[in-house]
Design goal:
Blueprint: H1 10-19, E1 26-30, H2 42-60, H3 67-89, E2 93-97, E3 101-107, E4 110-116, E5 123-129, E6 133-138, E7 143-148, E8 151-156, E9 158-163, H4 164-182
Antiparallel strand pairs: 1-2, 2-3, 3-4, 5-6, 6-9, 7-8
Helix pairs in contact: 2-3
């Protein structure tokens, strides 16, 4: 598979190309299906909505026009968290090579690179999600602790938010890799 044949942006293609070994061959490349409304920042949306509505009420009731300037940061708090997750998912890359499975995930601190070496039962679970999406949970420690909203919970690691078609292709390729490793 050639990187030029993928739907990745040029920046994502370059990032993936730099992360591959010289003798690695790409078998499959994909990205998660973006979910624009899935954001862990629900508090900021509610906080922003409260203050936007309070300021609009104050302006309409004859308040100072300077109150309109206060709308800018609170309006940002209302809309930015709704789209930041989609923006970050567009910069997440999933790759399956002849040697390993790769996840290059974009975070606020840069890219995080995860590699999964093909071993028997590499796919720990297949989680069906609403909307026909699938999580393929990979690896020896498939769940990691993540603190969201003040609560510590386990979240899956692997190829997340794949379409059902992509998940089926990846599962068959991983089974072929596992078989080639055991020979």
């Amino acid at each position: 598979m050639n990187l030029c044949d993928t739907n990745l942006s040029p920046a994502c293609q370059q990032r993936l190309k730099e992360s591959l070994f010289d003798d690695e061959q790409l078998l499959w490349v994909g990205q998660p299906v973006p979910e624009p409304w899935a954001s862990p920042a629900g508090f900021f949306v509610l906080f922003g909505a409260f203050w936007v509505s309070a300021l609009l009420y104050g302006i309409c009731r004859g308040g100072s026009p300077a109150m309109a300037f206060a709308l800018i940061p609170f309006t940002g708090m209302l809309f930015v968290p709704l789209f930041i997750n989609k923006w970050m998912q567009r910069r997440t890359i999933y790759a399956l090579t002849n040697q390993r499975a790769r996840v290059l995930r974009y975070t606020a601190l840069g890219y995080i690179s995860l590699a999964y070496v093909p071993v028997p039962d590499m796919v720990k679970s297949r989680e069906e999600l609403p909307g026909g999406l699938v999580n393929l949970v990979l690896g020896k420690n498939p769940y990691v602790a993540n603190k969201r909203g003040g609560n510590l919970k386990l979240v899956p690691e692997g190829f997340l938010n794949l379409s059902a078609e992509d998940a089926a292709v990846v599962e068959s390729l991983i089974m072929q890799l596992e078989e080639s490793q055991t020979k």
